[in-house]
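Aggregate trends can hide what the representation actually does to any particular protein. In the encoding step, the backbone of a single protein was reduced to a row of integers, each denoting a local shape. The record that follows shows the chain in one-letter code together with its fold in token form.

***
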Amino acid sequence: MFERPGFPAKVGRWRPQTAENPTFYQIPYRTLVPQHGPSNLLVAGRMIDADEAAHGAIRVMVNMDQVGEAAGVAAYLSLNTGRPARHVCAEQLRRALADGESVVI
């Protein structure tokens, strides 16, 4: 249930119901990469791009720690491959995080 003072309570799901309903969510790499501006800029922290409901779930410390780690690894991959951070391959980023023993689902 989602409640805001002065607004009616909302009951809903963060994604449509399916035959298999995961108990986790993922934060896409694109939320760290601004659409406009420098191609090597990554935005990690509570200024992450997300809608209001998603932001309420991802802004907690443990998630922000993981987002910061992902941004750091993405910066490393950008430097190592010579590609702008905006063009780091998300799959390569997930592999690098997993290789570093981060929990990646």
In short: Residues 29-99 form one domain. The helical segments are 52-58, 61-81, 90-99.
